[in-house]
Amino acid sequence: MRLVIMGPQGVGKGTQAELLSKHYGIPHISTGDIFRQNLKNDTELGREAKRYTDKGELVPDELTDRIVADRLAQADAKDGWILDGYPRNAEQVEALDGLLEREGETLNSVVALDADCEVLMDRMSRRAQSEGRDDDTPEAIEVRLKTYEEQTAPLLGTYRDRGELLSFDGTGDIDEISQGIIEKLDAARQ
Ligand code: AMP
Q1: Which CATH superfamily is domain 2-184 in?
Q2: Comparing C-alpha atoms, which of 146, 88, 83 is closest to residue 117?
């Protein structure tokens, strides 16, 4: 199963990706987590990414595409994966298309989650308090929301046109949402 999960910040992408990862036995690959892990370990990649992540801006495509290609080439990702936070713009969609084509693979589905703006803002401020992420400053959150609207949300149309998009409401009980996603994914696989 090869999946992309998309949606605005605070919609619960990470939580649902984790549940899908467990259910299908595929690695949950979050580009944001990869950057944060590198930052924690003070690697060169982490230091380079921090220049952008701190401000809520996208890390340059060239760097991001490379870390995704490297991660997908690892043994545990041979039979599937769920990508969370990638692709985030049209160039990254192309990069992922190219990567899949070279490997002779196809994407199963793009899972899109959405929720009202109020719910998202509320979850974001609660996450900022509980997790204390460096990039959860009001300024960075605003830039991320704007970047999502301008560059990432249009990709939903791209995947809808390809017939790969499955959309879900991200508000409500976590397990019920997950169950709904799994049912649709399994039906789409038939
Ligand atoms: P996230 O955890 O997905 O919110 O990502 C945290 C930050 O990492 C983002 O605000 C970006 O600076 C960076 N990032 C994550 N994924 C990408 C991506 N696909 N392209 C560029 N930058 C990314």
Answers
A1: P-loop containing nucleotide triphosphate hydrolases (3.40.50.300)
A2: 146
